[in-house]
Amino acid sequence: MSSEIAFILFALCFSAFVKGSLGLGFSTVCLAILANAIDLKVAISIVLIPSMLSNLIVMQSVGHFRVSLRQFWPMFLTTLLGMSIGLTILTQTNNDLSKGLLGLALIAFGLWSYWNRSSRLRDDLIKKLNPPMGFLTGIVNGATGSQIFPIMPYLLSLNISKEIFLQTINLSFTFCSIIMMFTLWQVDALDINSLIKYSLGVIPVALGVWLGGKVRKRLSENRFRQMVMLLIILLGCNLLYKVLS
Question: What is the model's pTM?
Fold first, then answer.
């Protein structure tokens, strides 16, 4: 086994364990590792299929699919609409500045929320906020490739269980990943050879997510939220690092 294949398998397995433990973070963590050694276009092509598989595994394990879809379908719909605008921005502008600002926003929110865990939005605001939050998430995702803002801070501010939180955010991840893959294929930016070659990566990814899921089930609601906040801070730092380097 070559050192490159071993490195890619390590990145897939480690990211899958993070995904299983927290229910999110696979593609961001995996890309952050892979980008240190291989071309980013190749890294994105390697991650796409295992990432969507990891989403489906978590969605199946946490349940509440109908509850999440019934409560947040307007947000999912407007996310897809927002992505059309975001992808236009991505293809026509230099988005380093927007990535840097997004990184700062994630760090600021993560630090604030970590120390203010009791802050929650009123339940009656959900119907009003779902459409604009989904639309903004789509724009940010399309323009920067980041799938977590502002949907993650928004969901964490609601009075919902970690299971519904995970189901909802992974549904959003899955919809956005499908659109992203189709768009990259349309503009000939998808490395089909790498996508097919590393499709067997779904096996270690499935194992890693399963093992991480054992850890997640032992976490209390507060501990789970704290760990997600720490991940948000790390993701923000990673975005800033990419822009500055």
Answer: 0.79
